């Protein structure tokens, strides 16, 4: 007697495909996806997270590629319960650059998707100091030309931007990267303490981050004064334009 239901679930509400995807068992995923009646987008009963999202969360690039090759898989579907994160948000949060690259090549993946807390993929990457992924999202060098740009100043439900998350967690390199973005806003305030990034750096004791923010603030002020006073050549000679860029 054969297996009656390839989509059967255990006490945790997880099907065989979910377990294989979450644990990176590529060959088993191949076998399961080849079965008649398999639900490639099946979700568990607790988090409502689909198989491709489990693979993305744990960085299983080869498994992720198998799901992306199918027409019956939605690569941008958030978990139905719990945190409502998409596969891209999971990969950005956990630092899985290879998975992120695969997802970014898809035209149906939203770079500005928001989870239950309002965080975007960029803010997840910034919060965890995942620089290579941040650079991918910001530069979009290998993305399709018709994609909208990632918003540096997107705020989550608490009014916190990607910069704020990097500052709060003391991710110095991530802060540096974001400060090189021309339109980054240093003065947005969150909804919890009415903090700016500088206030957050002071609150959480991140000295190096505070210094970076102050340097950027002084540089912006100097640049503004120089441009208004038509002293652009002096600014270039002193090397401030190079620092700004």
CATH fold field value of the largest domain: Serine Threonine Protein Phosphatase 5, Tetratricopeptide repeat
**What's the oligomerization state?**
single chain
Major β-sheet annotation = none
Residue runs with pLDDT of under 50 for 5 or more positions? 141-145, 222-231
How many separate domains?
2
CATH-assigned homologous superfamily of the largest domain:
Ankyrin repeat-containing domain
Structure explained in plain terms:
InterPro entries: Ankyrin_rpt (IPR002110), Ankyrin_rpt-contain_sf (IPR036770), Dendritic_Spine_Reg/Scaffold (IPR050889). ANK repeats lie at residues 12-45, 117-140, 193-225. This is Ankyrin. By secondary structure, this protein is mainly alpha-helical. Residues 141-145 and 222-231 have low confidence and may be disordered. 48% of the residues lie in helices and 0% in strands. The protein has two domains: 8-83 and 106-110, Alpha Horseshoe (Serine Threonine Protein Phosphatase 5, Tetratricopeptide repeat), CATH 1.25.40.20; 112-237, Alpha Horseshoe (Serine Threonine Protein Phosphatase 5, Tetratricopeptide repeat). The relative contact order is 0.08.
Summarize the structure.
By secondary structure, this protein is mainly alpha-helical.
């Amino acid at each position: 007697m054969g297996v009656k239901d390839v989509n059967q679930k255990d006490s945790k509400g997880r099907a065989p495909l979910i377990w294989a995807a979450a644990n990176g068992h590529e060959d088993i995923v191949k076998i399961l996806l080849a079965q008649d009646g398999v639900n490639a987008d099946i979700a568990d009963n607790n988090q409502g997270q689909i198989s491709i999202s489990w693979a993305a969360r744990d960085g299983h690039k080869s498994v992720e590629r198998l799901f992306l090759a199918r027409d019956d898989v939605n690569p941008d579907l958030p978990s139905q319960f719990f945190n409502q994160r998409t596969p891209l948000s999971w990969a950005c949060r956990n630092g899985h650059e290879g998975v992120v690259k695969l997802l970014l090549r898809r035209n149906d993946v939203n770079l500005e998707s928001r989870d239950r807390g309002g965080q975007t993929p960029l803010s997840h990457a910034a919060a965890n100091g995942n620089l290579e992924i941040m650079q991918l999202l910001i530069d979009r060098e290998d993305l399709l030309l018709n994609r909208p740009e990632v918003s540096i100043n997107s705020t989550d439900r608490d009014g916190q931007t990607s910069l704020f998350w990097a500052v709060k967690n003391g991710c110095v390199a991530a802060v540096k990267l974001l400060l090189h973005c021309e339109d980054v806003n240093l003065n947005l305030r969150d909804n919890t303490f009415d903090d700016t990034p500088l206030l957050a750096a002071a609150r959480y004791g991140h000295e190096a981050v505070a210094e970076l923010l102050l340097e950027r603030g002084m540089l912006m002020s100097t640049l503004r004064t120089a441009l208004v006073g038509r002293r652009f050549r002096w600014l270039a000679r002193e090397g401030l334009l190079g620092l700004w860029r």
